[in-house]
Amino acid sequence: CICMQIHGTLKLLNDVFLVAGTRSLVTVSEVSAKAGGSISIPCLYEPQYTSSIKYLCQTWKSEKRFMIHDDQSRQVFTVTITDLQPQDASYYWCAVRTSTPLKILKKKLNILMESVVFLSCQGVPGLHVDNQEVKGFMGEDLTISCYCSNTGESQWCRLGGPCVKGSAGEIDSTSVIINNNHDGVFTVTMKRLRTESSGWYFCASEGLQMPVHVTVEHRPPMSECSTLHLIKKPH
C-alpha cells in the first residue's frame, strides 16, 4: 500500500496493519474531475483521532502532488490532488494512525483505513461545481450550482450527515431548496445561514458526488461615509 502522511511525502509503508472497523472515517464514494485540474476530498473522522497522524493511501506508487490539511477543530482532514491526469483514476483510502500497535503481528503501525473513494479523471467531469470553497453570510441565502451530465435524482448532503432529496428539505435546521429547472445543472439554495451551517457538503447525482466546503461568516459592516460639505469660495 502507498500512503502519504500529513506534512510528508508519498511513500511506501511496509510495516502497516490495515484495520477494517466501524465507520470511524467518512468520505464521498466516487468523484470525477477534469484532467489538468484539481480536486479536494474531505475525510471526516471521530474525535478520538484528532491528534492521530492522517494518511491518503492508494494501491499503486505515484509521484503526483498531494496536499493534506487537517482541521482538528472540526475533525476533518482534506486531501487536495493537483495537476490531475487520466492515469490518476484509481481507488484512494482515507486513513489514520491509531495509538495501539498490534505487537502480536510484529507490525510497527496500526492503521485504521476504511473510507474508500474512487476518482475518475476525464475531459468533462460527470459532476462538478464552479468552486469547491464557497462563502456565505449569517442570516442570508447561499446558492451553489452543481453541473451534471446525467438526469438522475439530485441530492444535497452533509458529509457524515443527512441528505435532501427532491425539491426541498432541511439539514441541521437549515432549509434547503433544490431547483432542477435547467438541463445539465441543478442549484442548491441554503436559506438563512447559521454558524452551524459551516462544513463539508456534497452534490450527488447518479452515484457521483462533488464535495463543497461552506464557510459562514458575519457580513462585515459597511464603512461609514463622511458627509461632504461644500464650502463656497468668496467672490
TrEMBL record:
GO terms for molecular function: transmembrane signaling receptor activity. The keyword Transmembrane applies. It is found in: Membrane. InterPro entries: CD300_family_receptors, Ig-like_dom, Ig-like_dom_sf, Ig-like_fold, Ig_sub, Ig_V-set. This is Ig-like domain-containing protein. Pfam families: V-set. It comes from Salarias fasciatus (Jewelled blenny). GO terms for cellular component: plasma membrane.
